[in-house]
Amino acid sequence: MTRPLRIALTKGRLEKDTVGMLEQLGYDCTQVREKGRRLILPIGDGSIECVLAKANDVITYVEHGVCDLGVVGKDTILEMQGKFYELLDLGFGRCKFALAVKKGTDFYSGYGVKTIASKYPNVTRRFFEAKGMDVDIVKIEGSVELAPLLELSDGIVDIVETGTTLKENGLEVYEDVCPISARLIANSVSMKLRQSEIETLVTKIERYFENKEET
């Protein structure tokens, strides 16, 4: 018996936004909203089920085919990359990657190699390589804003939504790197074996966004 179409959702805000979207599409997501400690939950009549996971794991599960689809931020896609299809920009979870520095700093002045702190070393490396710049990258797991304050780095590359945290710590956006939003991704084999089911869901989502734009 074929298992349900399985979607991996990034826990937290993207999970809530995705569930909200699926409910607007007419799916009963009661079990997801009342999940307790369960991590695999049925949606609607059970022909679809969702798996709740951390962002990096969403990509891993989709890439290895244990989940057919996934909802994950473009930030995670850019950092991890991998072999899967990116089907749709879902429009929610909007923010951006940005280069931030101490307020009033002229980042590109001088000739020395700059040091950049980031949770996203791959995104950071590609951004500066595109500029033809060599930089030293320090990987930070926690509050990356600390690095320039402690003079560990000349700047940071991080996700910025409102900029409040930067402002409260004497930092400012120096340059935008790229926009970010939630994306629907698919396993490459699932795209062939479960094409009809995936296309049906994708079409419903596309129509949902078209109707939103019209209203």
Task: Describe what is shown at a glance.
The protein is α/β, with parallel strands linked by helices and 215 residues long.
Oligomer: single chain
CATH class of the largest domain: Alpha Beta
Mind telling me the CATH superfamily name of the largest domain?
Periplasmic binding protein-like II
Query: What's the number of structural domains?
Result: 2
Helix-strand topology string: EHHEEHEHEEEHEHEHEEHH
CATH fold-level topology of the largest domain? D-Maltodextrin-Binding Protein, domain 2
Assign an overall shape.
Answer: elongated
Largest sheet: 6 strands, mixed
Radius of gyration: 20 Å
The tally of strands reads: 11
Task: Give me the side-by-side strand order of the main sheet.
Answer: 2-3-1-4-11-5
Query: Roughly what percent helix?
Result: 25-40%
Structural class: alpha/beta
